[in-house]
Amino acid sequence: MLKRQTPRELGIWLGNMVPGPNNDITDVPDVLVGNVSLISGSGKLVPGKGPVRTGVTAILPRGTANIYRQPCHAGIEVINGYGKSTGVPFIQETGLLNSPIMLTNTLSVSNVANGLLTYLLNQNPEIGINTRTPNLVVFECDDSYLNDIRGRHVLSYHAKIAIQRATNGPIVQGNVGAGVGMSCFQLKGGLGSSSRLLKRPNGQVYTLGMLALANFGLLEDLLIEGVPIGRSLMISNEKDYIPGSLILLGITNAPLDRWQLTRLAGRAVLGQARTGSISMTGSGDFCLIISNAPLYDQNIFSDWELDEYYRAVVEASAESIWNALFLAETLDGRDGNIRRAIPIKRTLEILGKWSRT
């Protein structure tokens, strides 16, 4: 049995641009990621008791700095608005992010938001007294195929622990944090990440990092290097499909404004499509892209410089999804449901066959 490896480590083509040293979102300076994974119980579902296959992930775009006092420019694209995430309208209206970003399961959004709010209130005692309230950003995907989602096992204190655990990379990917119970193309999904380096004509090098919470799609649609891998694998049953979601988060240290970041977020769907996704009904698909450069950085980009950023978003979005697939491990859940890891050896054999034809 082959060790779980990324597609890049296995020699699969993932684009022409150069990744950062960790090839994940923490290649962007100051970005920290923390997780709490909850796995317990087995067998028949007993709502409220388990089995539990879920978690929460925290992303801190400015590290330990107080993002409420030092907000970031942000842009968001609602690819398919079926999701139940919080904080989207404020970003659309203001182009600002003033809280950490949290990822969890659909029915734990309110618990995680409460933990995030407690964190921000403790950090900022002036909130609600002589300053405005923060915009809490919590994204979600439905992990109910494996998890007792009705039990809402992710609690407020888990959100605070995830924030406290946030560190720089390389980050853990696959079955971790919010990705524990996720499915992707009817295989085991989860968290995946990738990055790209970009050089301006003046020699300045910036980084774009993407992170995916991958929980969507039918096996028959899965593409890798443009090859219809899913149709050849034939290891899943279409009847087990439960509509999921895809959350894509991008962070860059380039001084882009809200409208440029919104344009970048709109290109993420092209990376999603490279993996075979059609953004099915019931799949809540969002992309948020942030700049953690100083809010009033004067080293402004021209719109004509954005093409390589578009390329970076497309490549890193697709690779993040594939990384989630390749690094996730087989996991059983409630009622005997199981999500199998993508079979690496068989996948490489299929790709090799297509390359010879």
Q: What does it look like?
A:
This protein is of the alpha+beta class. The protein has one domain (25-355): L-amino peptidase D-ALA esterase/amidase, CATH 3.60.70.12. Helices cover 24% and strands 24% of the residues. It is built from seven helices and 14 strands. It has a six-stranded mixed β-sheet with strand order 4-3-12-11-10-9. The longest helix has 21 residues, at 307-327. The protein is globular, with a radius of gyration of 19 Å.
Features:
alpha+beta; six-stranded mixed beta sheet; 357 residues; L-amino peptidase D-ALA esterase/amidase; four-stranded mixed beta sheet; 7 helices
Structural class: alpha+beta
Low-pLDDT stretches:
none
Q: What is the overall number of helices?
A: 7
Into which percent range does the helicity of residues fall?
10-25%
CATH topology name, in short, is L-amino peptidase D-ALA esterase/amidase
Order of helices and strands: EEEHEEHEHEEEEHEHEHEEH
Q: What about the largest sheet?
A: 6 strands, mixed
Strand content: 15-25%
- Reported CATH architecture: 4-Layer Sandwich
Distance between the termini: 27 Å
**Number of spatially distinct domains:** 1
Large-scale geometry: globular
Number of strands: 14
